[in-house]
Write a structure and sequence with these properties.
Length: 377
């Protein structure tokens, strides 16, 4: 089983924290849709032996597309790829795009999962982050979306400057009041070359505080687990049967194809990524070339990726798999490096599976990088 990711490189406006690839000019939207369709057609041979289980519209903001543009791209996939009977088809969407009539129209398309970028239910947070929607739109769209869609995920951001624990708890409780079965939540991070970075440098906005973010993270786990959510990946919580199939495939190392500018692909042996430039992408597709670079993965690369993704999830890192797939010296190295984290109760090993403890989850990316092997080959 594998997945297709479609990167829609357009947004109405730039969020201050975002470093993803997008353009705020929609002038070439129609040309881009045709180019993405052409890329899907001329890359179908890569997936001849694959069955597609998930289709994911990400970005950017895929909800800036017209309904017929979304349906057109799904039709192209259906005509050129082998699809399971009921694929998970996710559309990332912003509340300001999800007007009531749009939601009802989407419910009549093959889209069966919405991932809604709420981020916060407080006006001042949305203004600080330069989100395109307001708090009222966030609540209104969830009210309508839950009447039409069963499978909804919403995004929340924690660690926002000046956000108290009480305010964060109110965000969580508001999200839960809509009965959504999935929540993705991320710490506000300051990426280079973003507006947020410049605002902090000019001292117009306070820098996020790691201790506050960790408190918010632990509160989030506590509140969502009380409501029956499973913390199945560092940033993701789902009710049973509502884990994101698309994202789970990434973490379990399944193959996926990314189309559109800046989209990444993985075929089990190498990673590749399309150029993060709309004009260069359009020109390459027009010339029937794939606008991408490839990186073959060494055994050590694959080991490091497995450690990173494994420690982020409830499935953990299998010691048996490490030995079988990478060899005894990798296993011995892992056990030696992990010892101090097991002693400090940041990691635990049960039945041959290494996982992060509740205490270690927030730090799991840093712990994983300490378990990486750098120069074995």
């Amino acid at each position: 089983m594998s997945g297709i990711y479609i990167h829609i490189p357009f947004c109405k406006q730039a969020c201050h924290y975002c470093d993803f690839h997008f353009s705020t000019s929609l002038r070439k939207k129609e040309e881009m849709i045709r180019a993405i369709a052409n890329e899907l057609i001329f890359r179908k041979n890569e997936f001849q032996k694959e069955t597609v289980e998930t289709i994911y519209f990400g970005g950017g903001t895929p909800s800036v597309l017209e309904i017929d543009e979304i349906v057109f791209l799904i039709k192209i996939i259906n005509e050129n790829y082998n699809i399971v009977d009921l694929p998970e088809i996710t559309l990332e969407a912003n509340p300001d795009d999800l007007k009531d009539e749009v939601i009802s129209q989407l419910a009549n398309t093959p889209i069966n999962r919405l991932s809604i970028g709420i981020q916060s239910f407080f006006e001042e947070d949305l203004v600080m982050m330069n989100r395109a929607h307001n708090a009222m739109e966030a609540k209104r769209c969830l009210q309508t979306a839950t009447q039409y869609f069963d499978n909804i995920s919403l995004d929340l951001i924690y660690g926002i400057p000046n956000m108290s624990n009480e305010k964060w708890l109110e965000n969580i409780k508001t999200a839960l009041s809509y009965g959504v079965p999935h929540v993705s939540s991320y710490a506000l991070t300051v990426e280079p070359k973003t507006a947020l970075k410049k605002l902090i440098e000019k001292q117009l906005v306070s820098a996020p505080n790691d201790e506050v973010a960790q408190e918010h993270f632990l509160l989030l786990i506590e509140e969502l687990e009380k409501e029956g959510f499973i913390h199945y990946e560092l940033s993701n919580f789902g009710k049973p049967s509502y884990f994101s199939k698309n994202n789970t495939a990434y973490w379990l190392g399944k193959k996926y194809m990314g189309v559109g500018p800046s989209a990444h692909s993985y075929n089990g042996k190498e990673r590749s990524w399309n150029v993060a430039n709309n004009a260069l992408y359009l020109k390459a597709i027009h010339d029937k070339k794939r606008p991408s670079e490839q990186e073959p993965l060494t055994l050590t690369d694959r080991y490091n990726e497995y450690i990173m993704t494994g420690l982020r999830t409830i499935w953990g890192v299998s010691l048996e798999r490490v030995e079988k797939e990478f060899g005894e010296r990798y296993l011995l190295y892992l056990l030696n490096q992990a010892k101090k984290y097991i002693n400090s109760e940041h990691l635990q090993e049960q039945n041959g599976i290494l996982t992060a403890t509740k205490k270690g989850k927030f730090l799991s990316d840093g712990i994983a990088s300490d378990l990486f092997l750098l120069n074995l080959e």
